[in-house]
Amino acid sequence: METYAIVGRRIYGFCGGHFGRDSYRNKTIIFVGPNCLVAVDDEGNPGLAEFEDWEHMEREVKEWSDRAKSIYD
Fold first, then answer.
1. How much is the average pLDDT of 20-34?
2. How many Å apart are CA 41 and CA 23, to the nearest integer?
């Protein structure tokens, strides 16, 4: 089973608003905790996203990165 919430993973777009309502830029994950992650956008602005638990975080990150395959590739 692939792990999606990993350092270096690109996530795309709004990400369900987890990084704030004005965060529409693509991001790169730079830190992963048990129920949170930190990502920076292409301009170096950091953002924190918190989740109920690891499973919820994995589902969301998978969606954010998989969705991009069809949009950006």
1. 93
2. 9
